[in-house]
Amino acid sequence: MRYVLSLDQGTTSSRAILFDRLGRACATAQKEFAQHYPQPGWVEHDPQELWSTQVGVMAEALQRAGAGSGDVAAVGVANQRETTLLWDRATGRPVGNAIVWQDRRTADTCTALRERGLEAAFHQKTGLRLDPYFSGTKLAWLLEHTPGARPRAERGELAFGTVDTWLTYKLTGGRLHITDPGNASRTLLYNLHTGAWDNELLGALNIPPGVLPEIRSSSEVYGHVAQGLPAEGAPIASLVGDQQAATMGQLCLRPGMAKNTYGTGCFLLMHTGQSPALSKNKLLTTVAWRRQGVTDYALEGSVFVAGAAIQWLRDGLKLVRTAADIEPLAASVPDTAGVYFVPALTGLGAPHWDPGARGALFGLTRGATDAHLARAALEGVAFQVADVLRAMESDAGIPIPELRVDGGASANNLLLQIQADLLQRPVVRPKVLETTALGAAYLAGLAVGFWSSCDDLSEHAQIDRTFEPHIASEQAEERVAGWQRAVERAKEWA
Ligand code: ADP
């Protein structure tokens, strides 16, 4: 058995990667699928297309590696989180499109739950906020708005799942209806303290328990790939949400270890140990994974606009031609000459949570140039990440000694240097940046003995570059104080 086959079912594409025993990506295949926007604020995916693209790339990756089913020690699944599906248990036919995590159609439901005074109960039990982002209100919407769905659900004929659940159902020819605690912890229906679906929360959202998948661990042999599919007969051995997978792929396995993914936005996760830490700073508490009977927890915070700020400089202002051009432009000046850019283009995420904040530039003088603006944009990303990281440390009461990074914008060396300067601690970029797929592979490989232990994994993990802080802490504090003044002025604008 030469490989672990990792399926990375993201928001815009399905990917499959074969990893060998040294954790190297040996073959990759990727296929995009359609995004549907039926109304403003709505985002949907066709469940059949999620599946067909996923099967397609599985076959393609195997073919590229010249591998057959016999070469696959295990299959691991990483998925876009919170996206909500409902299908007929017997036929596998979806009742409609999947409601994607970005979809805001249930904002009113969340407001209504808040008005009923339920926010505290939801937060205390689930570690989440009442926000349309999570699956619970999306599932309630499907049950309410699909003709005939509610009575069919009451009769046990319908199955709910996030994308991990849907893919496992399809991979096993309809045999399994399961999820992992990490994905379950993003639904608003899972009680962090009992590790099970919560009847009171199900009642609040009017969801019949019969639609729910069984919660298994994140790393075990659940079943095998059905006959006639690529990698037929291979054990399916991990289910893990994409950000949790990246946390595993970065080997953040102990309390205080944290990773940040710099993409369109940023996703920070910090490992907090074996009991859930509830946040006082508007962060989310989530299950990282459960393995060998032990549940690990994490704090999570997201920044809405990170790489998107660079896109805006490129497409909106036409300051640069490509995103990569931002680095030499920003590096052409030694500092921002007092310019601050708060990239709150779509409001502010954690720890501010201000949907009414808007992007703002401060400190402009006649000497300000495109280069200062470019540098201020990179700083604006790094300041937001630093805000989340400090909130995490404060909530968990554990220091974060270094930050591990990945994602498209982590290619920017200057950004990471600025990040290290502001955080006053090392920022570490690994060689394998496919951390999501790698994390799912690790969890699957551990379950079947492809890798013997986490130490085994650490042995071959390779660092590409470590960025050490280059400025004094007083200087960093001064910058942060300026940023805080700027953020306060950008809040509650719209
Ligand atoms: P996502 O998964 O959210 O689509 P990616 O991880 O692919 O995002 O990263 C793409 C984002 O990174 C884009 O927003 C882009 O502007 C930004 N980006 C890519 N390269 C650079 C770079 N060299 N410097 C700064 N930002 C970059």
Describe the structure.
There is one protein chain. This protein is an alpha+beta fold and 494 residues long. The chain contains 16 helices and 23 strands. The radius of gyration is 22 Å and the shape is globular. The protein starts with a strand and ends with a helix. Adenosine-5'-diphosphate binds next to α10 and α11.
User: What is the radius of gyration computed over CA atoms, rounded to a whole number of angstroms?
Assistant: 22 Å
Distance between the amino and carboxyl termini: 57 Å
Q: Give a quick account of the main beta sheet: strands, pairing sense, barrel closure.
A: 7 strands, mixed
Q: Poorly predicted ranges (pLDDT <50, ≥5 residues)?
A: none
Let me know the average pLDDT: 95
Q: Which percent range fits the helix content?
A: 25-40%
| Proportion of residues in extended strands | 15-25%
Can you tell me the overall shape? globular
Per DSSP, the total helix count is 16
DSSP, total strands: 23
Query: What's the arrangement of strands in the largest beta sheet?
Result: 17-18-16-15-21-22-23
The SS-based structural class is alpha+beta
**Which ions and ligands are bound to the chains?**
adenosine-5'-diphosphate
